């Protein structure tokens, strides 16, 4: 404290000296030098406690990755990349920002979430919002009409995210896309196959992939009597059905977006349906829907898609869901979204979706928007949203400390049962004497003694091999 | 063309219809619907050739990475990461942007090159300028006083880069830093060792690491009579000596920065010196410099550093260079910069530095600028600038096509000699008959027949094993 007081006195004196010089109208250079001395003294003094002005944090919606979190990130990426490569994709990378006009008119209502850079002279730039639009720009720029590529990088959205649920303003996307003209529905089926392979390999629990088609939605809107100009905004309303009830969505359609209650109810009859290929066949018999050219094309393509999905052995993971709409403007055909399922609370209840972890679809018009001659390159792709997956894996791997002074073994075991912790390593006096560790399976309550040197291997063997952090 | 003409006519008619409705003061909804139809027709019409408004490019100073370039990038990263890990570093990651105030006051004259984000409400943000300041912020935020970490990520500078020489506005840095209190010069020596290991492994040619110390520079400025307030700006002038002549630097010091010619010449006598540990010892005998407390500390530390560098077997790669100043404000002690050497044109000439590929130094005050109580954490680190390395590797790996209709073999071999291509694979009539390929070493002019199935292995064996792209 004495040293600080002396320094403070020096700063005061030097400050007086500078003021004195200014009153004497000393040379600018002299004053400049004395001010520099003052600033130097102030720097030595260091920031005053309680006077700290700046906030020590990362920007809202972002986070650092610690070495431990990086280990999880790398393991998850390894699983994803090896699947992308197995399916023949090459990797590319693009800049983190694009010309602002490259992103303009591609994202519909979500465009307001784009981060713009400050105009500091030169080009107007925006941070990339996804990896799909930069990919389309890349294809047009390099005149590519045929490529399978993957791209893993951060994207940016000025959203108000619930970070506890693994949503951020800066987050990774892992994208796989197929560009080129191929036989119908084969690339689309491969994208769904890749999604299922990755979600299975990651062992993050049961999942379901909802599938729909923009043409079916548009056809449905048309026969229900929605004006053309309202297709996209009604699409956004429908897209909320995974979060809110039909009543709320209907209120929005009628109250905010000006549909009549009859038109809304008509839409409601459709969008509340979901099922397998039998629902596709049922709708192909729907006298009104099957008369609409767009809807008919969509339904016939979905029927073909289900044939491939059955051949690929993943049809049981897929649900044709008429409420799936997806927010982005650029989709033109099949769309899909994978959700993790929560184990039902009561037996007999349907599993509850707890959030999207992957999504994608067909966008046949996007490359043409960049090509100087409007040449189209059909594309279909998928994006894995890994932040939520990181959260799940992180929680699963977390070792916990019980905040009790004298925790009884029985209480600890009970806590493990409640928290879903699979294995307990017990070290008591007897175990210490024998040089072993008692490993208890919480579910089966079976216990075995394991030699200390074998413990790591034994735990590895019993837990996820794909995601074990060594 | 007929189809386009019909569409154009439809667009015109629909436009008239909309104008008509507006004159009739039709309902807003009716007009909205008709406008939507008009826009849809215009979209079908597609962009008009020659009327293309937007530019199809990446932002200035940025580039995409093709799959081929990604392969080079991954191989280079592999070499770097395995060295960082071998030296015990953990990996972290931080967001691409920071609060603007986190970057303020850390970069001196270079601060004008920081990219700011547009104020769209909420926090003021800037793209990271390097990985060092985010690392210091991370240490202070997590109250870490001891860590070896590496971080590989893109940083952003609004520079006017010469992209052909591997300089960009968006570019990768590969950083390794040691935070914590250790015995003097040991972490500093390890950083230099890592730099040398990586540059040797990458096999991109001969290199030299220039070393200096901020305290020697400051002490030298003081005894030459530079006012305190001008230390940093004169430092920037000195830093240009690797690009321009001493005369030009002197002109800047006198003409722009207000030194007297005598003071400038005095500086000139010092900064034009470079050498090994003997120059350190010579300056320790310099009557004026050794009387300056800062300079003396710096010189004694450099002497100790050279002892460790000799033990590490890299002293011959290091040059004590009094002209090395480094632009950034936050360095407090040893600084260094690695340059690639061009083979001299005439025998006996000194090798010419062709550009910095790695740099770093000690910054003991930076973490304290973030800590609420000003607690200091000594740090030293290095940064590998990989973009230039990518360029060199890319050039080296490029297979070339000779633009001649009937190229004679002798001309081709001569071209290889001139261009420094190491191997030639020759397939003539005889080789085709025998099922072999003649492999010729351009330097030694030796030729051997290699079986077709062994060719890839043989080329791999003869070229860089660390960087072979399969």
UniProtKB/TrEMBL annotation, chains A, B:
E.C. designation(s): 6.1.1.21
Superkingdom assignment: Eukaryota
Aminoacyl-transfer RNA synthetases class-II family profile domain residues: 37-407
Catalyses which reaction(s): tRNA(His) + L-histidine + ATP = L-histidyl-tRNA(His) + AMP + diphosphate + H(+)
SUPFAM superfamilies reported for this sequence: Class II aaRS ABD-related, Class II aaRS and biotin synthetases, S15/NS1 RNA-binding domain
CDD domains: HisRS-like_core (cd00773), HisRS_RNA (cd00938)
Pfam families registered for this protein in UniProt: HGTP_anticodon, tRNA-synt_His, WHEP-TRS
Gene3D superfamilies for this protein: Bira Bifunctional Protein, Domain 2 (3.30.930.10), S15/NS1, RNA-binding (1.10.287.10)
Alphabetic keyword roster: Aminoacyl-tRNA synthetase, ATP-binding, Ligase, Nucleotide-binding, Phosphoprotein, Protein biosynthesis
Enzyme class: ligase
WHEP-TRS domain segment(s): 3-59
SMART domains assigned to the protein according to its UniProt record, in alphabetical order: WHEP-TRS
General function of this protein: Catalyzes the ATP-dependent ligation of histidine to the 3'-end of its cognate tRNA, via the formation of an aminoacyl-adenylate intermediate (His-AMP). Plays a role in axon guidance.
Family according to the record: Belongs to the class-II aminoacyl-tRNA synthetase family.
Name the record gives this protein: Histidine--tRNA ligase, cytoplasmic
Encoding gene per record: HARS1
């Amino acid at each position: 404290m004495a040293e600080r007081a002396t320094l403070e006195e020096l700063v005061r004196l030097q400050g007086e000296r500078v003021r004195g010089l200014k009153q004497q109208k000393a040379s600018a250079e002299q004053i400049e030098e004395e001010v520099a001395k003052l600033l130097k003294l102030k720097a030595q003094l260091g920031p005053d406690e309680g006077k700290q002005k700046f906030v020590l944090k990362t920007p809202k919606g972002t986070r650092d990755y610690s070495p431990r979190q990086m280990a999880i990130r790398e393991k998850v990426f390894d699983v994803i990349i090896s699947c992308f490569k197995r399916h023949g994709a090459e990797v590319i990378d693009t800049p983190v920002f694009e010309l602002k006009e490259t992103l303009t008119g591609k994202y519909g209502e979500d465009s307001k979430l784009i981060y713009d850079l400050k105009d500091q002279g030169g080009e107007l730039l925006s941070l990339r919002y996804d990896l799909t639009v930069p990919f389309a720009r890349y294809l047009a720029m390099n005149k590519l009409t045929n490529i399978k590529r993957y791209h893993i990088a951060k994207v940016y959205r000025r959203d108000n995210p619930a970070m506890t649920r693994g949503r951020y303003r800066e987050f990774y996307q892992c994208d796989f896309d197929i560009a080129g003209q191929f036989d119908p529905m084969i690339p689309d089926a491969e994208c769904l196959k890749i999604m299922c392979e990755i979600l299975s390999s990651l062992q993050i629990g049961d999942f379901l992939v909802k599938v729909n088609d923009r043409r079916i939605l548009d056809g449905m809107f048309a026969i229900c009597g929605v004006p053309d100009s309202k297709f996209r905004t009604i699409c956004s309303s429908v897209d909320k059905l995974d979060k809110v009830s039909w009543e709320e969505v209907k209120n929005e359609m009628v109250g905010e977006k000006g549909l009549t209650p009859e038109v809304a109810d008509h839409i409601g009859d459709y969008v509340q349906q979901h099922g397998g290929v039998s629902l596709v066949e049922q709708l192909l018999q729907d006298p009104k829907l099957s008369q609409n050219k767009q809807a008919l094309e969509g339904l016939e393509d979905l029927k073909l898609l289900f044939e491939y999905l059955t051949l690929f052995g993943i049809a049981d993971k897929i649900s044709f869901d008429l409420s799936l709409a997806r927010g982005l403007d650029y989709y033109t055909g099949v769309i899909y979204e994978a959700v993790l399922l929560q184990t039902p609370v009561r037996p007999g209840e349907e599993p509850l979706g707890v959030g999207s972890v992957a999504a994608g679809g067909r966008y046949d018009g996007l490359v043409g928007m960049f090509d100087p001659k409007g040449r189209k390159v059909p594309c279909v792709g998928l994006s894995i949203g890994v932040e939520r997956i990181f959260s799940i894996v992180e929680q699963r791997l977390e070792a916990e400390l019980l905040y009790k002074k004298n925790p009884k073994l029985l209480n600890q075991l009970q806590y493990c049962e409640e928290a879903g912790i699979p294995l307990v390593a017990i070290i008591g006096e007897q175990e210490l004497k024998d040089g072993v560790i008692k490993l208890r399976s919480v579910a089966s309550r079976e216990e075995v003694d394991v030699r200390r040197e074998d413990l790591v291997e034994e735990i590895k063997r019993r837990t996820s091999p794909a995601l074990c952090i060594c």
